[in-house]
């Protein structure tokens, strides 16, 4: 019996092998053709640009989405933008002027401008477009200051405001302020327009494969007044732009290194030093227009005591945080970063001198607030209760996620016990809105300091912090048109915030764009790192 | 055959309450999550009054049961609603991705069967030998590995270093190989295990012993008698695993940027896009019920005893 | 084989004999033996973690970050300069805890429901089977994710979420096994002598359904560990600085190319531990209940 069984198994082991081979061989033959490099014709330029981004956009209609990305940058064209030195220059508009004591902005449009659909861009279109934004965008309030939009002639439009709209420029220079083809939007309906949006940017939608990629093709009707690009019309060297959605960081970077992708956005911290050493790759960066910071619940004891807040600010070693972030960030001590408007170097100097790491001072501040380690467990206590705080950490902000445990360990050194709780960023924000937190790691990206009104204003923001002087200054800051005067206002606000510390600044990130060396002519614009590909060529052969 | 039809119809009717139950549980869970999608998606510079307006526009301030019945009545009519985040019809979002997920899942199951069955058979025939240990050990090894780690290593090896296969995304059938393999490798152990224990069981049954005793050629005994009967539960397992794998594809789809439903589902849960989550989970639940029914029917066809049992 | 009246001690003895027999047989099942040794080793590491570890698992040291394995740091350091060796050693506690708690919760829910459904039948059976079917029709990982989002992240919440969504196999197997027992002579006899239902379930039925439950319980531990890993990958795992293997693996994955030690060691420990429990579970199945389909 056992003998015959063994004989059987031998035969059938053989059969099993045959089955495996029978399956493997076709698979190998199937793959083999793909392994052979297809003969590349000796052309000089690759005409398709492939960009990898982490997440698929919510939609394409800039007036319906809650965040903009590279696709919107290519489909839409703002009236004006910032150049590399943060000076305002024309894009779609021919020129602009500010009148009525700063209360009105007049835009002059080119006479032949068209959307990619062929519909003309007139003053009426600009007006309709802004009105549509005010109806449907989650950020409708962006244009709240505009009281009426006057059409002076077909190619001249005037935004009349109740007060000088200093902060409106911050919207106008982004794609959020770009005109959309309202006529097409009306006939398509908003849902459809969100899938097939039409703007006047250099590229237009060809195909959207959900979950995978978007294909854009050159918009032959495109024209720009950007002074810093050579090519003021359609780029003849790039026919198509493919934007791929690759959520996993390691996968996205590997695709770039393998040469399947030309440009990667959202370069993970860990990849930066590695990519810098790669001779095939070059890196561009822009400084985050904003800061990463610890938001503090100033109404909850013991954090209502400013000495405790100052102790925390002094205990955080920002240089270590930045080191852990592979030096892809800059330690930061004040509230306005260099790529924001109204940045004041002096304030940063003062803040740095005040809040550079000083463990002894932090400890004595805590002691003066009544917190000392009486039971010798390493944590300070008061009335028998240890100083224990919860730190909310957003998992989807890589920099903040990484430094969470380090801040925890640093605060341990001055005897504060910190419990880290990780959530998606949106939950962290929600918890802070509900005042249900001690400390929370947060960040913003917005070039205008008016963003502070949504964070520290007593009634508009309605976070835990409220200071009437700050509220008044924030409201004043909205209306001051002169940059120097405006900077003074925000400097005062910063000085007060540095005393009150409702937020503890940590660092400013460098936001990297990784590009293969053979992609030439790329421009990455501050403050948001928008990419301008008007002059891009991708060199592949030497015919 | 009429009996079979009646049997199938009965099974389908039994599945409907389960699907309804799934949708109610899910709707409750989604609404138990604190907050709502409007607050979650908008950026920093938004006015609180605008949030209220949007919430009202989406009907999110109505009582849950009204929202549920509103949603259900539309779902039954084939209207899946509009995604709160994407502001596009949910059906467009899902049906463009569903084929990719099904393609990935089916392929990986087929790979798992092609590798798993021979391993299980050989292991059973060589029970206790080093081949048995090696085969089962190999299968269980992959079964014990975190899916995303396996996926990333395969991707780095075959995609980045050897450059044999595309790293990620969908650029033709060859890009299916790595994600399907990653999904398949852990399933191999399950299939090999199952067929091995089935074979061992069948090989000790009287009719197989009799066949052997009669001196039938071993090939005949193993394939006509043992293997064929051992295969029945394994085939049934095929249908049972299908929906389960679709759910498990979330991680693999993220690693390989595969344009399936997994990533959409994950993002929609995190951002509380109720209409999308509801629709996807219900589709998975419906697929599960259908697969269960198919599994039952297949086993009923292959093994008439089951039908009699159910009837009695 | 079954006496008409079996006292609880007899059952215990019977099971004890079976286990001794099982241990003896294990030597014939080399795979199960390997699994058994692995499980023992991991348990010892977990118990003796403070003795084995070189440092605190949450001690950061930015100056020594991303150091490859050396005599000072046997497994190297991670991006915050934490000793991976110490973290991995302490991590064995987390992994075993996760596995055991999930297993206990699942087994308690599943077995109780299975006993009720199988023993009483009728409406109870219909309702329980329906609930089981509903839970089973939902993809477990997705459902667990939803629950974690509701109750907040954290290791215990993750454990609870995994357990809540994956107990149905216990119910199904227990129910089927009980159904095959309820009409057997020894149960009928117990009823005839006036034993109440609770006693019958606990003293007569439970001991006889234990073997598949033990097998399933053993196999549940590795799958719980792997599920936590998947949740960590999606960003909803243990909270830092908990040295959870899955979280270490998920957090270190971006550095797989140039600092592979960060992921390699926790990865190896996950695989070995899961492998150990899987081999043990498979071996137990072969020994206790070879026809069990899990």
Model description:
- The complex is a heterotrimer of chains A (543), B (312) and C (294).
- Chain A is built from 17 helices and 25 strands.
- In chain A, the strands form six sheets. In chain A, strands 2, 9, 10, 11, 12, 13, 14, 15, 18, 19, 20 and 21 form a twelve-stranded mixed beta sheet that branches. A four-stranded antiparallel beta sheet of chain A has the order 5-6-8-7, covered by helices on one side. In chain A, strands 1-25-22 form a three-stranded antiparallel beta sheet, with no helix packed on it.
- In chain A, helix 9 packs antiparallel against helix 12 (359-368) and helix 16 (468-477) runs antiparallel to helix 17 (483-500).
- The N and C termini of chain A lie far apart (74 Å).
- Helix content of chain B is 78%, strand content 0%.
- Chain B has 14 helices and no strands.
- In chain B, helix 8 (147-161) packs across helix 9 (177-203) and helix 13 crosses helix 14 (304-311).
- Chain C has helices at 8-26, 30-47, 49-52, 84-120, 122-137, 140-151, 155-165, 168-181, 185-192, 197-233, 245-252, 261-288.
- In chain C, helix 4 packs antiparallel against helix 5 (122-137), helix 4 packs antiparallel against helix 10 (197-233) and helix 10 runs parallel beside helix 11.
- Chain C is mostly helical.
- Chains in contact: A-B, A-C, B-C.
Topology of this protein?
The complex is a heterotrimer of chains A (about 550), B (about 300) and C (about 290).
Chain A: H1 2-35, E1 45-46, E2 48-53, H2 70-75, E3 80-82, E4 88-90, E5 95-99, E6 104-108, H3 123-136, E7 146-153, E8 156-161, H4 168-172, H5 182-188, H6 190-193, E9 203-209, E10 213-218, E11 240-245, H7 249-257, E12 263-265, H8 269-276, E13 281-287, E14 292-296, H9 306-315, H10 318-324, E15 329-331, H11 345-355, H12 359-368, E16 381-382, E17 385-386, E18 388-394, H13 398-412, E19 417-423, H14 425-433, E20 439-443, H15 453-456, H16 468-477, H17 483-500, E21 503-516, E22 519-520, E23 523-525, E24 530-532, E25 537-539
Parallel strand pairs in A: 2-11, 2-12, 18-19, 18-20
Antiparallel strand pairs in A: 1-25, 3-4, 5-6, 6-8, 7-8, 9-10, 10-11, 12-21, 13-21, 14-20, 14-21, 15-21, 16-17, 22-25, 23-24
Chain B: H1 2-32, H2 37-41, H3 48-57, H4 64-76, H5 90-95, H6 98-125, H7 130-143, H8 147-161, H9 177-203, H10 206-213, H11 218-255, H12 261-270, H13 274-302, H14 304-311
Helix pairs in contact in B: 1-13, 6-7, 6-9, 6-11, 7-9, 8-9, 9-11, 10-11, 11-12, 11-13, 12-13, 13-14
Chain C: H1 8-26, H2 30-47, H3 49-52, H4 84-120, H5 122-137, H6 140-151, H7 155-165, H8 168-181, H9 185-192, H10 197-233, H11 245-252, H12 261-288
């Amino acid at each position: 019996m056992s003998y015959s069984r063994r004989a059987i198994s031998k035969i059938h082991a053989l059969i099993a092998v045959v089955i495996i081979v029978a399956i493997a061989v076709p698979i190998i033959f199937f793959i083999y053709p793909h392994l052979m490099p297809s003969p590349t014709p000796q052309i000089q330029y690759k005409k398709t640009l492939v960009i990898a981004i982490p997440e698929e956009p919510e939609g394409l209609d800039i007036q319906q989405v809650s965040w903009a990305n590279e696709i919107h940058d290519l489909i839409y064209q703002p009236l004006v933008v910032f150049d590399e030195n943060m000076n305002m220059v024309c894009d779609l508009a021919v020129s602009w002027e500010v009148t009525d004591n700063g209360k009105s902005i007049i835009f002059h449009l080119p006479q032949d401008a068209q959307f990619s659909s062929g519909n003309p861009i007139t003053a009426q279109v600009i007006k309709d477009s802004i009105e549509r934004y005010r109806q449907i965008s989650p950020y409708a309030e962006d244009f709240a200051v505009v009281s009426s939009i006057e059409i002076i002639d077909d190619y001249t439009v005037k935004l009349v405001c109740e007060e000088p709209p200093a902060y409106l420029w911050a919207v106008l220079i982004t794609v959020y302020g770009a005109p959309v083809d309202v006529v097409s939007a009306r006939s398509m309906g908003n849902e459809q327009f969100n899938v097939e949006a039409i703007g006047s940017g250099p590229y237009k939608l060809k195909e959207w494969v959900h979950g995978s990629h978007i294909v854009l093709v050159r918009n032959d009707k495109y024209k720009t007044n950007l002074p810093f690009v050579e090519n003021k019309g359609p780029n003849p060297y790039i026919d198509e732009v493919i934007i791929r959605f690759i959520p996993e960081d390691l996968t996205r970077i590997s695709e770039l290194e393998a040469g399947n992708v030309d440009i990667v956005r959202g370069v993970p911290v860990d990849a930066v030093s590695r990519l810098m050493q790669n001779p095939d790759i070059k890196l561009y960066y822009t400084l985050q227009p904003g800061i990463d910071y610890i938001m503090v619940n100033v109404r909850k004891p013991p954090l209502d005591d400013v000495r405790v807040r100052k102790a925390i600010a002094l205990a955080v070693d920002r240089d270590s945080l930045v080191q852990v972030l592979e030096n892809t960030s800059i330690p930061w001590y004040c509230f306005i970063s260099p790529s924001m408007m109204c940045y004041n170097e002096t304030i940063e100097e003062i803040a740095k001198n005040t809040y550079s790491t000083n463990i002894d001072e932090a400890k004595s501040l805590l002691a003066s607030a009544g917190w000392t380690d009486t039971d010798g467990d390493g944590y300070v206590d008061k009335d028998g209760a240890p100083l224990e705080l919860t730190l909310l950490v957003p998992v989807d902000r890589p920099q903040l996620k990484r430094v969470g445990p380090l801040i925890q360990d640093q605060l341990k050194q001055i005897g504060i016990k910190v419990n880290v709780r990780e959530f998606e960023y949106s939950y962290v924000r929600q918890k802070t809105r509900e005042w249900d937190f001690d400390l929370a790691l947060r960040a913003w990206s917005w070039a205008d300091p008016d963003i502070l009104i949504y964070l520290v204003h007593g009634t508009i923001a309605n976070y835990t912090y409220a200071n009437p002087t700050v509220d008044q200054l924030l409201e004043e800051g909205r209306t001051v048109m002169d940059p120097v005067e405006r900077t003074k206002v925000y400097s005062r606000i910063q000085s007060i915030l540095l005393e009150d510390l409702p937020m503890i600044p940590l660092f400013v990130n460098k936001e990297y764009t990784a590009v293969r060396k053979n992609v030439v002519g790329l421009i990455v614009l501050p403050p948001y790192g928008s990419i301008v590909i008007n002059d891009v060529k991708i060199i592949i052969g030497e015919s | 055959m009429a009996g079979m039809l009646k049997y199938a119809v009965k099974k389908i009717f039994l599945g409907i309450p389960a699907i309804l139950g799934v949708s109610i549980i899910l709707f409750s869970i989604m609404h138990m999550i604190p907050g709502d999608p409007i607050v979650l998606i908008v950026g920093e510079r938004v006015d609180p009054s605008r949030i209220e307006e949007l919430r009202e526009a989406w009907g999110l301030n109505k009582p849950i049961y009204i929202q549920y019945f509103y949603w259900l009545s539309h779902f039954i009519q084939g209207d899946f609603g509009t995604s709160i985040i994407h502001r596009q019809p949910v059906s467009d979002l899902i049906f463009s991705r569903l084929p990719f997920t099904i393609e990935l899942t089916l392929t990986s199951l087929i790979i798992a069967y092609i590798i798993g069955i021979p391993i299980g058979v050989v292991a059973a025939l060589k029970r206790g030998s080093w081949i048995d240990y090696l085969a089962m050990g190999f299968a269980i090894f992959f079964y014990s590995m975190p899916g995303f780690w396996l996926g990333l290593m395969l991707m780095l090896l075959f995609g980045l270093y050897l450059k044999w296969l595309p790293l990620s995304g969908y650029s033709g059938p060859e890009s299916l190989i790595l994600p399907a393999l990653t999904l398949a490798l852990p399933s191999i152990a399950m299939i090999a295990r199952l067929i091995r224990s089935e074979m061992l069981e069948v090989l000790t049954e009287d009719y197989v012993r009799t066949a052997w005793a009669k001196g039938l050629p071993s090939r005949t005994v193993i394939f006509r008698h043992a293997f064929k009967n051992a295969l029945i539960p394994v085939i049934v397992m095929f249908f049972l695993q299908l929906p389960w794998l679709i759910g498990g594809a979330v991680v693999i789809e993220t690693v390989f940027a595969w344009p399936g439903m997994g990533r959409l589902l994950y993002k929609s849960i995190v951002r509380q896009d109720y209409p999308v989550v509801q629709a996807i989970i219900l589709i998975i639940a419906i697929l599960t019920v259908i697969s269960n029914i198919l599994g039952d029917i297949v086993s009923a066809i292959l093994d008439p005893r089951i039908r009699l049992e159910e009837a009695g | 084989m079954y006496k008409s009246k079996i006292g609880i001690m007899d059952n215990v003895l019977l099971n004890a004999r079976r286990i001794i027999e099982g241990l003896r047989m294990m030597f014939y099942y080399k795979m199960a033996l390997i699994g058994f040794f692995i499980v023992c080793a991991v348990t010892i590491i977990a118990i003796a973690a403070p003795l084995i570890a070189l440092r605190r698992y949450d001690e950061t040291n930015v100056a020594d970050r991303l150091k490859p394995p050396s005599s000072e740091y046997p497994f190297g350091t991670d991006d915050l300069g934490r000793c991976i060796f110490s973290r991995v050693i302490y991590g064995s506690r987390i992994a075993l805890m996760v596995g055991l708690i999930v297993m206990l919760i699942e087994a308690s829910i599943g077995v109780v429901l299975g006993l009720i459904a199988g023993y009483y039948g009728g409406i109870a059976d219909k309702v329980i089977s329906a609930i089981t079917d509903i839970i089973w029709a939902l993809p477990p990982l997705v459902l667990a994710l939803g629950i974690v989002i509701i109750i907040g992240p954290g290791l215990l919440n993750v454990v609870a979420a995994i357990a809540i969504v994956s107990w149905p196999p216990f119910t199904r197997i227990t129910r089927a096994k009980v159904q095959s027992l309820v009409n057997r002579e020894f149960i009928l006899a117990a009823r005839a002598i006036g034993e109440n239902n609770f006693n019958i379930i606990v003293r007569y039925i439970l001991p006889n359904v234990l073997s598949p439950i033990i097998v399933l319980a053993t196999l549940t531990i590795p799958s719980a560990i792997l599920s936590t890993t998947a949740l960590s990958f999606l960003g909803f795992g243990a909270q830092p600085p908990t040295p959870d293997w899955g979280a270490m693996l998920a957090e270190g994955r971006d550095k797989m190319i140039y600092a592979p030690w960060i992921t390699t060691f926790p990865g190896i420990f996950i695989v070995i531990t899961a492998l150990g429990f899987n081999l043990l579970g498979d071996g137990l199945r072969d020994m206790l209940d070879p026809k069990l389909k899990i």
